[in-house]
Amino acid sequence: MGICYTLRDGKSQGRTELMSIEVTHDPALMPAEPARPVIHPRWVRVTHWVNALTMVVLIASGWQIYNASPLFAFVFPRWVTLGGWLAGALLWHFAAMWLLAVNGLIYVVLGIVTGRFRRKLIPIRPGEVLADARAAFTGKLKYDDLSVYNAVQKLFYLGVIVAGIVVVLSGLAIWKPVQLHELAAAFGGYDTARYVHFFAMAAIVGFLVVHVIMSAIVPTSLRAMITGR
Amino acid sequence: MPRVRRGPPPGVDPELLAKDAAKLMPDPTRRLFLRGGASLGALAFLTGCDIVDGTSAEQALIKISHFNDRAQAWLFNPNKLAPTYPESAVQRPFPFNAYYPEDEAPEVDREDYKLEVGGMVDNTKSWTLDELYALPQETQITRLVCVEGWSAIGKWTGTPLREFLRRIGADTRAKYVWFRCAEGYSTSIDMPTALHPQTQMTFKFDGEILPRKYGFPMKVRMPTKLGFKNPKHVMEIAVTDKYLGGYWEDQGYNWFSGL
């Protein structure tokens, strides 16, 4: 079934030209979409944004938990923490933990099964990382093809996945140092696991800072993570 | 009723109080303990959709905490022992930690003390300290993990709680064991943890009669749970099917708090 439209073509010099276009609901006959390929499939975008929210909750509540017994000579200012006090922060942390576990599992399994990790993140060659890093700092790195990651990006994305795995495992060791005491022992014991958990968090926060700055410098990458293209 | 004398109440250094308790205590001016941090904090952008509105967020988080109780009960292996350490690992002096300063610790009179027993047990007779000291005792060197994050290795000596529960004819099909303490503190634990071989009615710390600051005359030590689940100055033990929560648990700390 077709519908008849009449459009006004404004480009015709001075004259007003009437054009008739036949529009149908048959996709094969629809005018072609602007040809931007899908860079991020839906599962990547959904898990990315769920993870973003989960990370903010876990980091902010984790900082409040840290403040109850600081590992170093500083505490996090209250306004960047979540939960109000230790009990509230623990409630947030151990609620968001499930979201991270489920979402992270989906992401890692699909990343491996679909071959996305293999296609996008490896190989990482040290020479390319150095060259791309130099190019990035001198403003010469091109960001025109978002479907291909440069070597620095690959290193960052793979690195944050590894940091994510370490933060989860060290978190489990701190949470269950008796039931999972073999895991805690693998981290050098309960007390050391706390430091590992802290530094894995710090690595993730460092990644986040660069990641957010880069998405502001290259806004099309932000658009791609929202619309997929 | 055993007579309990509190330590001299005046002369409390407010800074000491703050140091020891502020980390755990809610802001007394704020009834909804999540509101302040949540709305001002990193989640401020969510306030528009009511996610961090005090009561609703709190209720959702408490529900998840109850789910976490069940998850931890499922994860708890009654035969898994907490790691033990050599004598040299014992931390001396062992950190004092409570919601009151050290000189405010309850003073329980040795002669008047009687451990009350109640609930689903065959014999509700009270126990004097001498009767308790006559029970078979064991020593454990284990790690105490505080909900705040720090930990310390200590040496505790006493009677396995399961041995005591057997002697009083406790119905071990009951869900909970509840403890009431001299200063009004209370906590409750699941029966599998009560029956865990390392859950101990503790009478000695580091070879000495349990000092006042560590819970004289008796504390209950369980290396499978966070420190605040290890009650000090225990005056009453009850076996029950009724969920009775506890001092910190009622304020939002997770009830199971297993390690």
Descriptive notes:
- The complex is a heterodimer of chains A (229) and B (259).
- Chain A has one domain: Fumarate Reductase Cytochrome B subunit.
- Chain A has eight helices and two strands, in the order ββαααααααα.
- Helix content of chain A is 62%, strand content 7%.
- Chain A has a two-stranded antiparallel sheet.
- Chain B has two domains: 31-74; 76-251, Alpha-Beta Complex (Sulfite Oxidase, Chain A, domain 2).
- The radius of gyration of chain B is 19 Å and the shape is globular.
- The chains are: A mainly alpha (229), B alpha+beta (259).
- At the A-B interface, helix 1, helix 2 and helix 7 of A face helix 2 and helix 3 of B.
Spell out the key features of this protein.
heterodimer, A: 229 residues, mainly alpha, Fumarate Reductase Cytochrome B subunit, two-stranded antiparallel sheet, 8 helices, 2 strands, 62% helix, disordered N terminus, B: 259 residues, alpha+beta, Sulfite Oxidase, Chain A, domain 2, 2 domains, 5-stranded mixed sheet, 5-stranded antiparallel sheet, globular
Short description:
The complex is a heterodimer of chains A (229) and B (259). Chain A has helices at 42-68, 86-113, 116-121, 126-137, 151-175, 181-186, 190-217, 219-227; strands spanning 2-9, 17-24.
